[in-house]
């Protein structure tokens, strides 16, 4: 990689993934990961992973191990430290993408275009800034694909590259099981076989065999250990997960038809890049384009076969989609001065849309969210000036048919949104009823009163509380206590009302936005009751 390309790619990744990490609050997936990591450090549950001290085997432990390691150095309250492993994984993914594309097309600038498209794609940014399992699994798998490609392109057996491919595949399996193997690696192999006619397959059979063995060992040892040491919990969780996969979030097979929109900034060019009859006569490397096209579409098809569907499951599709999109964008850049009128129109329309976005964001914010202007006049004003300047620059470059600069300005647009625009989201965090449950933990410790949970408690609330809370199902479990605290989302059962007097009732709400914002999540609300046996009740 040319040094200047490495520098600019790293700079863009840093701006996109590191800036303003503390603005977006912790979601349910992150909370589960953080809780398990915290319990690893406090209780030594490194192999038998837990969530509120209950077995948590639904996800393999590698991302949680990495999070716990970061937590050890940076503490349990440093959000930058907690999200650092995911950020590093995302950056590794972008650089692995550069290496793979460069090896495929033998053009470092094309690889830079593809990697920048990937880095600025919506769901890549979203996942790279959050400490959940997906970014780890797909990052490791892309490294495996990189070394698999290097292995297949050699005429002699490549044990080193093959073993590296197996090693990173094993790490992916240890991050989220076979998800990335199914959604990213299998479509890659299918695309390679059809595009390059199995070239290199048979010469690498022996190295591939050892690589596969290594991947299986690394990826399965933890699952085998857990099965042998806690078989009943494994069976219970496996049954629950099987039911969930077939009944939860079940969507129609065509649910992912708009998958290209998950690239965000590049949605228009991504859609054009999928029109094979239009693109095939324009790309410089038709075989490589055909490969990216098959890789992308086969990934979408395989994901569509799974009954359970969520938008975030499209994350692995964005990797080949960025490559596929880059062929047309690269063509527009390198052939800018000699493009047919139709392609000039496409370039003007696509980049012109982004210029329009630059003008629209400040205007819409001013008209629809005037409180942002009032609350953050300097920040909002500077952000608006930068966006308008980028929009004007894009128009200027389009007038000059300098699509290379139009492309770079588009990257600057996304970086500006993450650096200057993201902090403005705090203006929406205006829930007057917001109350952190962490205060309850401090009170409980001060008063030396035990606290229990009945029923469900959201992982976000549990993380915010700061330590495990014992769960009870029946009043007889705590009948010997004369005074205790109870957290519940449901109304207080009659058995508790009959035996105990409510001497304190507190409402905790972890929603950052108002209830009328449409963003309220009811599971982030809970009630706390301080109960005392009626015969022991005194006047307070």
What can you tell me about this protein's structure?
It is a single chain. This protein is an alpha/beta fold and 540 residues long. It has three domains: 3-334, no CATH class; 338-428; 438-536, no CATH class. Helices cover 62% and strands 7% of the residues. It has 22 helices and seven strands. It has a five-stranded mixed sheet with strand order 4-3-5-7-6. A two-stranded antiparallel sheet has the order 1-2. Helix 21 links the parallel strand 3 and strand 4 (470-472). It is globular, with a radius of gyration of 26 Å. The model has no long low-confidence stretch (mean pLDDT 91).
Provide the succession of SSEs: HHEEHHHHHHHHHHHHHHHHHHEHEEHEE
Our measurement of the CA-to-CA distance between the termini, rounded to an integer number of angstroms, reads: 72 Å
Strand order of the largest sheet: 4-3-5-7-6
What's the count of strands? 7
Summed over residues and divided by their number, the pLDDT gives a mean of: 91
> Structurally, how many domains make up the residues?
3
Helical amount: 55-70%
Strand portion, in percent?
Answer: 5-15%
Question: How is this structure best summarized?
Answer:
The protein has 540 residues and is an alpha/beta fold. It has 22 helices and 7 strands. The strands form 2 sheets. Strands 4-3-5-7-6 form a 5-stranded mixed β-sheet.
């Amino acid at each position: 990689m040319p040094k200047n390309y490495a520098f600019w790619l790293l700079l863009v990744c840093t701006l996109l993934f590191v800036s303003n990490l503390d603005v977006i609050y912790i979601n349910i997936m992150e909370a589960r990961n953080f809780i398990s990591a915290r319990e690893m450090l406090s209780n030594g549950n490194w192999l038998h992973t837990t969530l509120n001290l209950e077995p948590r085997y639904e996800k393999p432990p590698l991302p949680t191990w990495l999070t716990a390691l970061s937590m050890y150095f940076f503490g349990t309250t440093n959000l930058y430290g907690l999200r650092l492993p995911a950020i590093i994984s995302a950056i590794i993914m972008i650089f692995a993408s550069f290496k793979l594309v460069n090896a495929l097309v033998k053009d470092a600038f094309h690889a830079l275009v593809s990697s920048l498209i990937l880095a600025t794609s919506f769901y890549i940014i979203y996942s790279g800034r959050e400490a959940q399992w997906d970014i780890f699994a797909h990052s490791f798998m892309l490294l495996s694909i990189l070394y698999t490609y290097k292995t297949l392109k050699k005429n002699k057996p490549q044990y080193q590259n093959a073993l590296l491919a197996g090693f990173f595949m094993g790490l992916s399996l240890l991050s989220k099981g076979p998800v990335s193997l199914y959604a990213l690696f299998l479509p890659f192999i299918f695309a390679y076989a059809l595009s390059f006619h199995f070239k290199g397959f048979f010469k690498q059979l022996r190295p591939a065999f050892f690589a596969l063995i290594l991947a299986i060992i690394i990826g399965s040892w933890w699952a085998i250990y857990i099965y042998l040491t806690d078989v009943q919990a494994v069976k219970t969780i496996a049954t629950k997960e099987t039911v969930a996969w077939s009944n939860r979030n079940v969507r129609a097979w065509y649910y992912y038809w708009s998958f290209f929109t998950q690239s965000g900034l590049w949605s228009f060019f991504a859609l054009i890049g999928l029109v094979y009859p239009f693109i095939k006569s324009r790309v410089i490397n038709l075989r490589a384009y055909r490969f990216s096209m098959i890789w992308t579409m086969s990934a979408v098809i395989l994901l569509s076969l799974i009954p359970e569907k969520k938008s975030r499951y499209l994350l692995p599709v964005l990797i080949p989609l960025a490559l596929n999109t880059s062929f047309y964008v690269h063509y527009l850049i390198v052939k800018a001065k000699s493009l047919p009128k139709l392609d000039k129109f496409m370039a003007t329309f696509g980049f012109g849309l982004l210029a329009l976005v630059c003008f629209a964001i400040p205007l819409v914010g001013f008209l629809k969210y005037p409180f942002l202007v009032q609350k953050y006049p300097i920040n909002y004003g500077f952000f608006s000036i930068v966006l308008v300047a980028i929009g004007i620059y894009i128009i200027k470059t389009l007038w000059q048919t300098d699509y290379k600069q139009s492309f770079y300005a588009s990257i600057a647009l996304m970086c500006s949104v993450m650096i200057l625009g993201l902090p403005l989201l705090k203006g929406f965090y205006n829930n007057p009823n917001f109350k952190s449950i962490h205060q309850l933990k401090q009170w409980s410790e001060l008063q030396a009163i035990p606290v229990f949970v009945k029923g469900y408690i959201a992982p976000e609330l549990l993380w915010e509380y700061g330590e495990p809370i014992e769960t009870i199902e029946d009043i007889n479990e705590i009948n010997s206590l004369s005074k205790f605290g109870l957290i519940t989302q449901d109304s207080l059962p009659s058995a508790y009302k009959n035996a105990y007097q409510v001497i304190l009732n507190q409402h905790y709400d972890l929603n950052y936005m108002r209830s009328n914002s449409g963003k309220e999540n009811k599971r982030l609300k809970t009630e706390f009751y301080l109960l005392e046996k009626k015969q022991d009740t005194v006047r307070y």
